[in-house]
Amino acid sequence: MVDKKQKRRVPQQARSRERYDLILDAAARLFAGVGYEAATTNAIAREADVPIGSLYQYFAGKEDILHALADRYLEDMQQLHEESFSADISGLSIEEIVDRQIDPYIAFSEQHLGFKHAFLGAEVSADLAAAMAELDDAVVEGIKTALQRLNGQLSDKRATMAATVLKGMVKGLFGALESDTDPAFQAGVIAEYKRALADYIRRVAQGEG
Amino acid sequence: MVDKKQKRRVPQQARSRERYDLILDAAARLFAGVGYEAATTNAIAREADVPIGSLYQYFAGKEDILHALADRYLEDMQQLHEESFSADISGLSIEEIVDRQIDPYIAFSEQHLGFKHAFLGAEVSADLAAAMAELDDAVVEGIKTALQRLNGQLSDKRATMAATVLKGMVKGLFGALESDTDPAFQAGVIAEYKRALADYIRRVAQGEG
DNA sequence: GTACAATACGAGTAATTACTCACTTTTATT
DNA sequence: AATAAAAGTGAGTAATTACTCGTATTGTAC
After folding, report:
1. Which residue of A has its CA nearest to B208?
2. Interface of A with B in 49-78 (CB under 8 A)
3. pLDDT of B5 higher than 80
4. Does residue B55 carry a pLDDT above 60?
5. What average pLDDT does range A101-123 have in this prediction?
6. So what's the pLDDT on residue B11?
7. Residue of higher predicted confidence among B28 and A134
8. 3-state secondary structure of B187
9. How far apart are CA B102 and CA B119, in angstroms?
10. Hey, of B181, B200, B203, which one would you mutate to test binding to chain A, going by the most A CBs within 10 A of its CB?
11. Cβ-Cβ contacts under 8 Å, B200 against chain A
C-alpha cells in the first residue's frame, strides 16, 4: 500500500522477523512520546535494543519506519472496519447499533494509544496522508451504506453528508477523551456522545426535515 | 502568557516592529505549509525577506517564534470567546444560538487557516500545550455557563460533561471540513452539524433522560 | 556635522542526525 | 566440518540546521 525505496533486506529467518517488529514497536513508542521528528533513528535503535546498523538492514530510512508503522496501523484499522460494517444490525435499536460501532473503536484507540499523534501533525508525507484519507473515505462509505440500510429513501448525497458528519463527531469524541483522563468522566462523556450520535442517526433514519 | 528566554531585543523603532510582524507572518505561512520542524529559521528569514541575523534580534530562537505566534493566536481566540460567551442569548431559539456561536468560529478558522496544523502535532512544547489546554478549559467553561443559563437545574458536573461533548463535536466539525474542500458540500456539512448540535443542546436544556 | 546608539547584515560554526560500510558472528546446507 | 549465505555491528561521515558575532548601515541628539 505504501512503498518508496524498497531497499531494505527482506527478513528470511525468524530471528530477524522478531527484530523487525521490535524496531517497529520501539518506533511507535518513541513517536508517541516525543513525536516523529524528535525521534532519532539512533534513539529508536537504542529503544529497541538493536544496533543502528541492524535497523538499516530492514528499513530504508526513517520515513520507511513511519510507513511500515502506518501499514500495520491501517491494516488493523481496516480489519476493524470490515468487522464493524459487515455486522448485521437488523432488529437492533439505534442505541444498540451505536454501542456496537463505537465500543470497538474505543478499545482500538486505547490499544494503539498515542500512535495517531505521529499522524495528526503536518509532518506526514504526502502519500501517507493520502492513505489516511483513503481510510477516512472507507469509513464514510461504510457509514453511508449503514445509514441507507436504515432508511431506503436516503439519497447518496445526503447519506454521504450525514456519514461525514458522523465521522467528524466520532473523531471529536476521541479528541474530547484526550483532554481529561479521569475514567469516570470519560465514561460519562462517552455515554453523552453516544446519545448525541443516536439522536442524529435517528433524525437521519426518519427522513428528517 | 508564554515566555522562556526573553533574550530578544525589544523593538524601539517603528521599523523593527514591522519586521517583527513580518517574521511572524512568514513563520505562520511556513509552519502551515511544511510544518514546524521542517520550517528552518533560515527559510523563515528568507520568506520574510529579512536577514537571519535580524530574525535573531527579535526572537531568542525557533521555539520563541512559535510561542510568539501562539500568543497572537491565543489572544485572538480569547477575544472571540469573550465576544461569543458574553452575547445575550435570551429569547433566541436554540437554532439561532447555534448559528451565532458557530459562524464566528468558522470565520476565524478560515482566517487563521493552517495555523493550527503546527499545534495539532506532538512537537509542541509542554507549556504551549498547557496554554492550549487552558484555552480549551475556558471554552468548556463558557459553554457550561451558557448551558446552565438554558437550564437552571443542570448540575455543574453534568453541565461540564455536556460542554465537553459540545466542544468535541465542534472540533470534529472542523476536522470534517478539512476532508472535502467543495464549498457546497462543506455548507451542507455545516448545516447538518448545526442540526446535531441543536438537537443535543435541546436535549440537555430539557433536562433529558 | 559629529558622536553615539540602535539596527541591519550574513558568512561562519558547533552540534546534531540520518545513514554507510567494512568487518564479525550466526545459521543453513551439504 | 566446511562453505556459503544471512544477519549483526557501531565507529565514522556528509549534510543539515540553529544560532553567533564582527562589521556595516541607519537613525538620533546636540
Report:
1. A195
2. none
3. no
4. yes
5. 72
6. 63
7. B28
8. helix
9. 21
10. B200
11. 195-196, 199
For residue B14, what is its C-alpha cell?
517603528
pLDDT tens digits for range B114-150: 666 545 554 556 666 777 787 788 889 989 998 998 8
Buried b (16+ CB within 10 A) or exposed e, B186-208: bebbbebbbbbbbbbbebbbeee
> What residues of A are in contact with residue B37 (Cβ under 8 Å)?
37-38, 123
Cβ–Cβ gap A199/B199 under 8 Å: yes
From chain A, the residues in CB contact with B32 under 8 A are 122
pLDDT of residue B66: 86
CA distances from A95 to A77, A92, A100, A106, B197 (A): 23, 8, 9, 16, 18
Chain B interface mutation, best of A31, A66, A164, highest count of B Cβ atoms under 10 Å = A164
Question: Considering chain A, what is the average pLDDT of its residues?
Answer: 85
**Residue bearing cell 471529536:** A172
- The residue type found at A56 is Y
Q: Using the beta-carbon criterion (under 8 Å), do B200 and A203 form an inter-chain contact?
A: no
A35: left (phi over 0), alpha (psi -120 to 50) or beta: left
Closest residue, chain A, to B121 (C-alpha): A121
Mean pLDDT throughout A44-55?
94
Looking at residue B72, the DSSP 8-state letter turns out to be H
The CA R_g of chain A, rounded to the nearest whole Å, is 20
Contact B65, B24 (CB under 8 A): yes
Instruction: Provide the CA B50 to C1' C8 distance, Å, integer.
Output: 9
Q: Of B146, B128, B145, B173, give the one whose Cα is nearest residue B31.
A: B128
- Residue of higher predicted confidence among B63 and A45: A45
pLDDT score recorded for residue A115: 63
Whether the beta carbon of A15 falls within 7 A of nucleic chain C: the reply is: yes
DSSP conformation letters of B77-92: HHHHHHHHHHS--TT-
CB B123 within 8 A of CB A121: yes
Q: Which nucleotide is nearest to B59 (CA to C1')?
A: D19
Dihedral angle sign, alpha carbons of residues A107, A113, A115, A118: positive
Q: Which residue of A has its CA nearest to B129?
A: A179
Q: Which residues of chain B make contact with A136, given a CB cutoff of 8 A? A: 179
Q: What is the predicted pLDDT for the residue at B1? A: 47
**Least confident stretch, B3-17, B105-119, B125-139, B191-205:** B3-17
